[in-house]
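Researcher: For the record, we're logging two predictions in this thread. I'll number them. Prediction 1 follows.
Model: Prediction 1, sequence and structure:
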Amino acid sequence: MIVNASEADAGKRLDVFLQEQLPEYSRSRLQDWIKAGRVLVNGAGGRQSSSKLRGGEAVEVEPAALAPLKAYAEDLPIEILYQDDDVIAVNKPAGMVVHAGAGRHSGTLVNALLHLFGTLATGGGEERPGIVHRLDRFTSGVLLVARTDAAHRGLAAQFAGRTVEKIYLAMVHGTVKAAEGRIEKPITRDPARRLRMTARLGEGRSAITEYRVLERFAGFTYLEVRIRTGRTHQIRAHFASIGHPVAGDRMYGAPATTLERTFLHAHRVRFAHPATGAEVTVEAPLAPELAAWMNNLRGAG
């Protein structure tokens, strides 16, 4: 794969630049690839991780095979919202990770689904079978999973083509004045805090978020949110960028509250069935702990 450095990247360390461009890989793994000669800058190898870019370079990366993490079945409670021979839709609870990754090999949604269904599509790899999209750990709600490889290809194409409707419910800090609106800001990795994204730099991948006010409270606004793109932490980064972080989201600057998770819920997904083409809509009611917290806001008002 080739990533191109812009003039704005001048002076950046090579490993830092690659981590920004390829966040799916850890910095230590990228440093190993640089040392092994798997990273070429303008066709030449021999660079160090600390080498500084001048801007404008073409950086070619040849990833080494990753050691697979094979998911296994685990008896965990999970709510199934929809299922047929091709597709499963689950109501993911907040706190549950979708699939295995660094430092986590059990307790995931995939572990629970393998226990219930035995096999899933292989397109996501051994560590994330059936997975075509993800929700953050502390986001609840509808998540689609493919049972067959054909369904995985069909759903993945719809997500890539932005034809899947994804509606969220969110409570944000402050008073959002407009009854509805649109946030269109590019999102990139935050150079100051590598675990989060930012929409404050005016650079990165394009991202579009639309919202509609459902209810206003003292100090908070309850929103219906539609995302037109599917960037990492998109809703969280976008609303933080306009001064309205999601309630409970301390990573993105939300003040402390009594809420023990982020107030972000994947409420509805609408897609074309990958086998029949029929429109399918799946909804997950607002998580009970979020509904209770919002009722407390009503009572306080």
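Researcher: Logged. Prediction 2.
Model: Prediction 2, sequence and structure:
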Amino acid sequence: MLTYPNIDPIALGIGPLKVHWYGITYLVGFLGGYWCMYLRRNRPPQHWTAEQLQDLLFYVALGVVLGGRTGYMLFYDWPTFVKAPQTFFLIWDGGMSFHGGLVGVLVAMWLYGRRNARHFFDLTDFIAVVVPIGLGAGRIGNFINGELWGKVSDLPWAMRLSCADPRFGTYCDGPTGYSLPHVPSQLYEFLLEGVVMFAVLWIYSAKPRPRMAVSGLFALLYGVFRFLVEFVRMPDGQLGYLAFGWVTMGQILSLPLILVGLTLLVLAYRRKA
């Protein structure tokens, strides 16, 4: 059993200015994604200039932030948004939905492709390879923020949480000063959605693939990984389980991704044939 190190979510504070680790992890994700896109800028069938990549990154970032926050408020915390709409802008406190961010990025890619005469699936195939960098960085941000914990477990890497930290008050119900040990499901997601997905997509896309294939593999992998991790991750407190005592919102939103991924892969290879 381990003890959570109680990392301060604020990386740097100068007077009223506070820089949050959560924001830094997003910045790392965007910069890491840009660097990898730059390395792949001349792979056929597309060729990119540095200026075009910067424009593409702007569209992606806008889609991630607006879509991710909107999706979270709609799917996971609608009552809070209705009571206090200003909470939409408190991104540094956490609360970003991957599925909402995905929709935001897809809309951004449609707009970018329409403006720059690029095929929609050429764009999604290109960026799908680097998206896991942002996903992995975001999960590290979740860990630093002390959110999205897994279930109670006796695994040797499960972590107990300090009851002195106000973030973990709901986890504490005993006199020991610490909660029962919880599995760090954020780190599970970092490994699966970040490291494993990036490695698989990078290797898979190293050779020319039919249009839509990389996008399909991305959707399939994320949907499967997220569905599985939800079994050990505690559901959002404001929602709980939605059915049968185990179905979560994350699983419901991931099922369409699995179907879309399979469909895109089948269509991609049928077109090639």
